[in-house]
Amino acid sequence: MTLNSKIPEGPLEKKWSNHKFNMKLVNPANRRKYKIIVVGTGLAGASAAASLGELGYNVHSFCYHESPRRAHSIAAQGGINAPKNYSNDGDSIYRLFYDTIKGGDYRAREANVHRLAEVSGNIIDQCVAQGVPFARDYAGYLDNRSFGGAQVARTFYARGQTGQQLLLGAYSALNRQIDAGTVKFYDRHEMLDLVVVDGKARGIVTRNLINGKIESYTADVVVLATGGYANVFYLSTNAKASNATAIWRAHKRGALFGNPCYTQIHPTCIPVSGDHQSKLTLMSESLRNDGRVWVPKKKGDDRQANQIPENERDYYLERLYPSFGNLVPRDVASRRAKDMCDHGFGVGASKMAVYLDFADAIKRLGREAIFEKYGNLLDMYKQITGEDPYQVPMRIYPAVHYTMGGLWVDYNLMSSIPGLFVLGEANFSDHGANRLGASALMQGLGDGYFIAPYTISDYLASNKFSPVDANGGEFKAAENSVTASVNKLLSINGSKTVDEFHREYGKVMWDYVGMGRNKAGLQKALKLLPEIRSRFWKDVKITGNALDINTELEKAQRVADFMELGELIAIDALHREESCGGHFREEHQTEEGEAKRNDKKFSYVAAWEYTGKTGNPKLNKEKLEFESVHPSQRSYK
Amino acid sequence: MKLTLKVWRQKDRNDEGRFVEYIANEVSPDMSFLEMLDVVNTDLVKKGETPIVFDHDCREGICGSCGMMINGRAHGPGKGIATCQLHMRSFSDGDQIVIEPWRSTAFPVLKDLMVDRTSFDRIMRAGGYTSAKTGGIPDGNSILVPKPVADEAFDAAACIGCGACVAACPNSSAMLFVSAKVSQLALLPQGKAERVERVTRMIAQMDEEKFGSCSNTYACEAECPKQISVTHIARLNREFVAAQF
Fold it and tell me: Which residues in chain A are contacts of B58 at CB distance < 8 A?
C-alpha cells in the first residue's frame, strides 16, 4: 500500500491556511443531506460532533457510557497548552511546535504539529466562551503554569481538574446541538464493527448494552474518537472501560495502525498496593513543579522518609538534569525512577517507588499555597494510601498512561479507509514517540473543533455517495460476524474469568513490552501472548446471556481485541531497532542511559496492515521529512 | 477481613428486586470498595452465577459513573468522596454492609446497582450551556473574571453528575445538581446573557423528570462527593425568582 500523507505544499507556517483555502466546501443548504457518525464523546468526539452539528450536518453521536460526560477525558488533571505568551517569557507558536516535535523525539510530522500549535490558542478562547472556569488572577486574567518538557509557562488549568472542565465544556456544546436537533445521541451503544462498502467507510454495527441488540447504522462519514489502548497492559491510569475495540476492528477492516509500540509511561502514579489492584491512579505531572523527586543515597534504606537527613538523599533528577530538573519529559522521568528501583534504591513496602516531596515547597510557599494549587490531588493521594502528603513525602511510580500510536491518518485526519476519520488519542498523529504534558487535551479539542470540521467537509464535497442500506449485504455480514463472536464467547463456559486472563496478559505486556524492552524479552512475549490468547478462547468463563446487560460479555469483547493488539505492539517494538521517546530498547542507549535514535534507518512511521491473520502484519512506511527542525539527540541537561 | 454483604439484586427495570447475602472473605484494608466487589464478582462468575452489576469507570472519583447506597449513605461513609474512592480500611472485620442502588423515581433501576440517570442529561440539554459557536471567539483575556468569582464558579462546576444529591434527599430533589450548573453560568460574564431562559427551562425539565422539591434538609451537601455548597441552591432560587419578572 502506498501511503500519501497529503501534507500541503508551501512553507510550514502557511500550510494550514493555504490548505483551508484550497479545501472544498459544502453549501449550507446541502449539509443536512450528509450523515456523519461520530463514535466516542470525549474531548475529540464531543467537540467534533458539536461543531459538525452546528455546521448543519446530520450527526449521530455514539458512546458506550450512559452520558457523554463520562468519557475518560474527564480524568485529565494538569492542563492544556497554548502559546499565548501571557507570561511574557518568550513563547510563540513556533516554540510550542518545536517543543512538541522535540518532546516527541522527532518521530512526528512537522506539518501536523505546527497546525496543532496554530489552533491551540483558539481552543482556550473557545473554552472560555463556554464558561470553562480556568484559573484566574485577582485582576481577572488567565493564569498559566509550567509543565514538563518546556521552559515557558504556557499551561492553562482549572485546579487539578482541567480535563473535567474542558470535557464539560465540550459536553455542553454537544448538548446544545442535541437540543437543537442537529445531533442525535445514542447512549450505551458500543461500536463492534466498521462497515466498508465499495472501499468507503459507510457505517457501523453496534451492540445496545441494555438489551443486547446488534444494530447497523449507515453514514457518509464515520469518525472514530474512541481514545487510546493503554489498558492492553491491564494496569494503567485509563478508566476501566477504555478500550481499543473500535479502532482495532477498523484496523481489521483495512485501516493501517501507526506506531503501536509508542506507549507512554507516566512517572507520577500511586504505586501498586496488592494483587487486588484494578487500576492505577495518576498524580498530575504538575506536581513536579513544586515537588522534588528523591531516593535515599543508601541502597535498601529502611528508615522512614522523615528520618533520612538531607545529605543522605539523592535528588537524582536535579543532579542528572540541572537545567530541567524535576521537569524533564515523562519518558525520561519514568525511566530514571525505574532505574533507581531496579538498582535497589526504591522506597516503601514494595521498594517499587520513589519519593515526591513537598516539604521544601510548603516551607517556601506555605501550606495554604500548596493546597490552592494541588489540594484535590493531595487529598486523592491521602484517600487512596491513607498517608498525608503534607506530612510525609508521596510515594510514586511510573504507570502506563497514554498511547501515542493509533490508527494511521493523513494530514486531513483520514485513515487509509476513505471516509473513516480518526481523532484524538485514537489516531497516531501529533505526539511522535512521546507526548508532552498538557498536549493531549490540546490535540483532542484541536482535532474536533478546528481541524476535522474543515477536512470532513472537503471529503464530502469531493466525493459522490451512492445510497447504502442497513439491510444490505455488507451490513448483514458484519452483524452476523459480531453476533457469532458474542455467541462464541458465551458458549465457551471455561474456568477463568475475563479479568484473570486480562491480568495475566497485561503482566506479560508490562514485563517484556513495557518501560524497558529488549530483543530477547520481546521474542519471549511473542511466544507467550498468542498462547494466552488461544487459552482465552478455550477457557474463558462468562455468565449471563447476550440479550441483557452483561458487563462480563462487554469486557470479554474488549479483552479479546487487546489480545490481538498486544501482539502487534510487540512486533512493532521488536522491529524498531532504536530507542525513541516512550519506546526504549535497552540495546540502544547512550552512555548516560538516554534513548538513542537511529534516524538513518528509522525516521519513518510504521503503519501496519492487517493481513487476515493475527501476528502476521505487513509493514508500510511513511518517511518523516524534517524541513524546519533538525533532529538531534534530545538533551534536558 | 471477613464481611457480610447484603446486596440489592434486580434482574431488570420491571423485576421487583430483593436483597441477597454474600460473604466476602480475605478483604484487604488497602482495597477500594469496588475492588472488594470485583473479588466477590470473580467468585460469582466462577460459581456460574451472574455478577453484581454496577456502573463504574475512572475509579478516581471524577467520571461520576459509580454510586451506591452503602449502609444507607450515598457513597458510603467518608466525606467528599465517590464510591470508588472509598477504601476498605473504613470498615472492620465482621461488619455487615448493606448495598443498594440510588432510589428515585427519576433514576429507574436498570439492573442490580445500575440506574438510569439520563434525566440529568435531559436537564442539561434544556439550556445548561452558553450558546458559544465554534470559532470567531475573541481572546480569552478579553473577558476578565476576577479570581474569587472564577473560584466560586469552579466550586459549582466541580459537580460530577453522580446523583448522590438526589439519592440522599428525602424528596429525591435534584436542586443541588441543577443549581451547580445554573450558579456556575450565572456567576460568569459569559453565562449572563442567557440566564433567564436557562433557569426557566432547566427547572421546567427538572419538574418534568419528576424530581422532588427542595425542603432545605442539606442532605445533598453532606453527601456530595465534591462538597458542593447549598448556597448554590440559594442562587438558583434567586435566578428563578428574578426570571419571573
Answer: 72, 74-75, 239-240
Binned at pLDDT 50, 70 and 90, residue A331 comes out as confident
Burial call B54-78: b when 16+ CB within 10 Å, e when fewer: bbbbbbbbbbbbbbbbbeebbbbeb
CB-CB contact of A529 with A563 (8 Å) = yes
Residues 177-206 of B with CB under 8 A from A: 184-185, 188, 190-191
Q: How far apart are CA B58 and CA B41, in angstroms?
A: 19
Q: Where are the domains of chain A?
A: 265-401, 481-599
Is domain B3-111 in CATH 3.90.1720.10, yes or no? no
Residues 463 through 492 of chain A touching chain B, CB cutoff 8 Å? none
Q: How many CB atoms lie within 10 A of CB B180?
A: 27
Q: What is the mean pLDDT of residues A285-294?
A: 90
> Residue B187 above 90 pLDDT?
yes
Q: What's the pLDDT score for residue A297?
A: 97
Q: Does the annotation count A330 as an active-site position?
A: yes
Residue A78 pLDDT level (bands cut at 50, 70, 90): confident
The total number of residues shown for chain A amounts to 637
Mean pLDDT to the nearest integer, A164-192: 98
B75 chain-A contacts, CB cut-off 8 A: none
pLDDT band at B66 (very low <50, low <70, confident <90, very high): very high
**Architecture of the domain made up of A265-401:** Alpha-Beta Complex (3.90)
CATH tag, A481-599: 1.20.58.100
Residue A47: its pLDDT value, please?
98
Residue A255 has a pLDDT of 98
Give me the residue from A175, A276, A544 closest to B125, CB to CB: A175
Which of A70, A145, A159, A330 is an active site residue? A330
Q: Categorize the per-residue pLDDT at A570 as very low, low, confident or very high, splitting at 50, 70 and 90.
A: very high
ipTM of the complex: 0.98
AA letter at B70:
I
pLDDT digits (tens, 9 = 90+) for A133-174: 999 999 999 999 888 778 899 999 998 899 999 999 999 999
Does the pLDDT of residue A592 top 90, yes or no?
no
Task: Map out the domains of chain B as residue ranges.
Answer: 3-111, 118-242
* Order of all β-strands in the sheet with A292-296: A263-269, A394-403, A354-357, A292-296, A313-314
CATH assignment, B118-242? 1.10.1060.10
Q: How many angstroms from the chain centroid is the CA of residue A410?
A: 18
Q: In B, which residues are within 8 Å of A542 by CB distance?
A: 45
